[in-house]
Amino acid sequence: MMSSEFNLVTEAKDNCIVINTTGYINNIGGQKIVDEFYKHNSNGINNVVLNLANSNVVNSIGISFLIEIIEKLNQSSGKLIFTNLDPSIEKTFTIMGLFQFAKKADNLEEALKYL
Amino acid sequence: MNIVEYNNIIDKLSVHVKSFQEGFSLLSKSSTLKEFGTDFCRILRGNFFISDVNLFFKGNDTTEWKSVVVHNEKCYECLPYLKPSPEVHIEYFSENEFSIIATLPSTDGSFWGLVIGRKIDKSEITEIDKITLQMFLQLLDNAYQSFTNQKKEKQLIFSLNHRVVQLNSLIDTGIEISKLHKTASLLELSLERAVALTNASSGVLQIISENIIVSEIGFPGNFDREKVLSSKNKIDTSVEFQNIKYLFTLSEKESRNGIIAFDQTDEILLQAFARQVLAALENEHLHSEAIDKERMHQEIEMAATIQRKIIPQHLPEIEGYDLAGINIPSLEIGGDYYDVTKLKDGRYLLIIADVSGKGVASGLLVNTLNASLNAYVENDFMLTEVADRLNKIIYKASTPEKYITGFIAILDPLTGTIEYLNAGHNPIFYANNGKLKKLDKGGLAFGMLDFAFPYESARIQLYPGEKILFYTDGITEAMDSEDEEYSDQRLESFFLSENPAKAKSFIENLMADIKTHTKNTPQSDDITALYLSRNR
User: Which residues sit opposite B209 in a β-bridge?
Assistant: First the structure.
């Protein structure tokens, strides 16, 4: 249940990147995700899958970073798809309104179909 | 000014007004200050025919100027000319590399600094340009207000949504941890949620017994224990259950602008989480107790089943005699016992016994009595010797306050002779020639003392038409709602007057008479009776 130190691994797919996170998505975790996003976005990547299979705790600062990514992608008609969400995170994202501008998928395969 | 020049100015201003309107819409939608500034400089360049437009921002009186858009590095040299004040400040220069330096105050206490180079055609700044600049400074001010309002609105919505998340998570966590029947899991989950919902960087839960930390849980996994506990930016709360203290400490509240102080809501939230943990711990304890109770109940049920097997389901049929018995325990496991066993020599052993108290311990003693008695009467025996052995074995097997009163009788069915021994039991009723006799010869109750006064037995002759009633004090002491006992007298009277043809009817009628007395008063003691009558 306890998450270890935050880290992420990014995989490049055809027209998107898949960011796989591990650990608590807080200020540090959120910043790392945003930095990783901008690194690829500046190279023209507009589709992002965020795989939270190994992150089951997120705070509101972490969420604010995710909203930043959503806003940025909306300006360029890009897409952000969350996958493998813990039920408590899914509920949190729903209340925070993230799914008005981003999609969710049960698994990576399904997420890639949205792109 | 001729009409052509006049029309040119009108056309130019019309373009600026259109640009002003479009610019406002564009700038208001900016997502960042950088984006806002970049778009504003682009609009300005298009309207002034100036490529060199530089923009600075100052959060308030005390902060430094920060560059937003820098086209010409030399613009930094103009920073001293920016004059933050409540009024708009504009300076025009005709000889310098930069033609305009303007400072604009905003309603939120911040300032914009504008450093503009020379026009592309190298011409001087005209009066029309000055009017145009005023217009676009107004645009900057209005659009920035709209931009900040939209940001505030977003922050407010975010904040409200976050409050909903906090409340929702508090409820969900309470439900989730109440379902967990493993203390470690519920503590881990509640700490995780408390850390996340208060935006803490990390948290520690210490479990303290007698001022000694017996266990610690931290979140996230890589947390620095000492840093959390020694932090000046922390909140804590504790709950106590069964002399164990659960101390929650959260440290370093996060924000996008760094670490900030925890607020009162965070403290209330943490206390609410701690109270949920306390409730969950209590629930877990009650759940565990319920399981133990259920296990105990099953064991008692099993013991009761075993004991019910000791009480005879069917009594032997003795030619010339009629027998009936009943045992109604007041608890699942009673302390009363009766039995009728045919001996090898054709005689019958009849026994009734009553263990002091009720429940499992009494049931165990009944079992000991039953097993011992059956073993001792396997072969030839003397009743007094059997009684002596029973006394010793019950004494060894029981606690000081436990003993067994009993009445044992050996019936020779051929002659009607009965040898009996009363071990501290209530006198047994014998109807002899229409008169009541009480059989009380014997000795002390079994297990009362290990040094035995010698037991004595006695003999009676049961003639046709005569009867004996073995009973326990649960009958004579059966009470009604006013604590009035059924009494020895009523039983004696019933015994003498009731002479049905069948022993079974006697027992049924006796039970009915007791019920008439007690009505619906709950039974407080075991009720046991054994009735023997000689027909011929």
Answer: B212, B244
- What six digits make up the tokens of B131? 């009017």
Chain B interface includes A53 (CB < 8 A): no
Cα distance from A111 to chain B (closest Cα, Å)?
25
Q: Which residues of chain B have pLDDT under 50?
A: none
Q: Is the pLDDT of residue A18 over 90?
A: yes
Third-level CATH fold of B311-534: Phosphatase 2c; domain 1 (3.60.40)
Residue among B121, B66, B69 nearest B99 (CA): B121
Q: How many C-beta neighbours within 10 Å does residue B299 have?
A: 11
Asked if residue A29 lies in contact with residue A62, where contact means CB atoms within 8 angstroms, the answer is: yes
Q: d(Cα B96, Cα B90) in Å, to the nearest integer?
A: 15
Which residue do the tokens 């290990």 mark? B450
Asked if B125 and B100 count as a contact pair (C-beta separation under 8 A), the reply is yes
Distance (Å) from the alpha carbon of A96 to chain B's nearest alpha carbon: 5
Rounded Cα gap, residues B369 and B324, in angstroms: 21
User: What single string gives the DSSP state of each residue in B414-472?
Assistant: TTTEEEEEEEBPPPEEEEETTEEEEE--EESPBTS-SSPPPP--EEEE--TT-EEEEE-
Pick B222's closest partner by Cβ from A5, A27, A61. Answer: A5
The pTM assigned to this predicted structure is 0.62
Q: What is the ipTM of this complex?
A: 0.90
In contact, B471 and B426? CB cutoff 8 Å: yes
Question: What pLDDT, in 10s, does the model give residues B271-285?
Answer: 999 999 999 889 888
How many folded domains does chain A comprise?
1
Separation between Cα atoms, residue A19 and residue A108, nearest integer Å:
11
Residues from chain B contacting residue A75 (CB–CB below 8 Å): 31
Q: What is the pLDDT at residue A97?
A: 93
> What per-residue confidence (pLDDT) applies to B317?
95
Burial A42-79 (b: 16+ CB within 10 A, else e): eeebbbbbbbbebbbbbbbbbbbbbbbbbebbeeeebb
Round to whole Å and give the CA distance between B536 and B527: 29
Partner B contacted by A60 (CB < 8 A): yes
* Cis peptide bond N-terminal to B329, omega within 30: no
Whether A2 is in a domain gets the answer no
Options 3.40.50.970, 3.40.250.10, 3.30.450.40, 1.10.730.10; CATH for B180-285 is 3.30.450.40
Residues in B touching A23 (Cβ below 8 Å): 220-222
Q: What is the dihedral of CA B149, A91, A24, B191, to 10 degrees?
A: 110
Q: Give a three-class secondary structure readout of B112-138.
A: EEEEEECCCCCCCCCHHHHHHHHHHHH
Q: Does pLDDT of A2 surpass 80?
A: no
Q: What token pair was written down for B305?
A: 């089943």
**Hey, which residues 71-90 in chain A have their CB within 8 Å of chain B?**
71-72, 75, 88
What is the C-alpha separation between A56 and A36, in angstroms, rounded? 20
- The fold of B3-152 is Beta-Lactamase (3.30.450)
List residues bridging with B114 in a β-sheet. Answer: B55, B102
**Interface residue B155 vs chain A (CB under 8 A):** no
